[in-house]
From TrEMBL:
Record's keyword annotation contains Hydrolase: yes
EC number from the UniProt entry: 3.5.1.44
Database matches in Pfam families: HTH_17 (PF12728), Response_reg (PF00072)
This protein's name: Protein-glutamate methylesterase/protein-glutamine glutaminase
Keywords: Hydrolase, Phosphoprotein
Gene transcribed to yield this protein: cheB_1
Length: 198
């Protein structure tokens, strides 16, 4: 028979998870937390289930406190430098990583797990079209926000097979100035984040 220490009461679980007693009751009723009742009608929750939920909460808090990460992919060093300057001036809290071609960018995406990708379409080797197509075949990565910086017309983009509807297209060079605001909108960054981070 399991020891009493293997289980939390609802009150102990609430204290451990930093939530109200009512939240614990709702989680038990909805099945989020498994529980059984004693002969006296008191709920008991397996300690392992509570600790696992506590660990998930800690991970979620760590993820939410992590600064948004953006990967910039362009074979032109001047453009990479320009993107970094423009973004950092308005969004200093954002973490920027750079890659100089599509293949390097693809490897970095797997390593860094970014919140957003900003890339050029015309690059040697793996260009932006192929990179976006490759990401579209991977369930998790196809959901990452993507901003394309290009000088191509809509007709030229269509001639290359087009782009997914979710991809945001900004035109070079004017679109560079719109990049920070576009990032704010896509990442849903709170207004004044740049001031808070300064």
């Amino acid at each position: 028979m399991a020891e009493q220490s293997d289980f939390y009461s609802t009150r102990e679980a609430a204290r451990r998870l930093g939530v109200s007693l009512r939240s614990i009751q709702v989680w038990v009723e909805s099945g989020r937390l498994p529980a059984w009742k004693t002969d006296g009608g008191h709920r008991r929750i397996p300690r392992t289930a509570v600790e696992m939920l506590a660990m998930e909460q800690d991970q979620a808090r760590a993820a939410s406190s992590r600064p948004p990460t953006i990967i910039l992919i362009d074979d032109d060093p001047y453009m990479l430098d320009l993107y970094q300057r423009v973004i950092s001036a308005r969004l200093p809290a954002v973490r920027l990583e750079v890659a100089q071609n599509g293949f390097e960018g693809l490897l970095m995406i797997g390593k860094v797990n970014p919140d957003l990708i900003v890339l050029d379409l015309m690059m040697p080797g793996m260009d932006g079209f192929r990179l976006i197509h490759a990401l579209g075949r991977i369930p998790h990565y196809c959901e990452i926000g993507t901003v394309v910086m290009t000088g191509l017309t809509d007709e030229e983009i269509s001639a290359h097979g087009g782009l997914p509807a979710a991809v945001t297209v900004l035109r070079k060079p004017q679109g560079v100035l719109a990049l920070p605001e576009t990032i704010e909108l896509l990442l849903k960054l709170p207004a004044g984040q740049e001031a808070a981070a300064a």
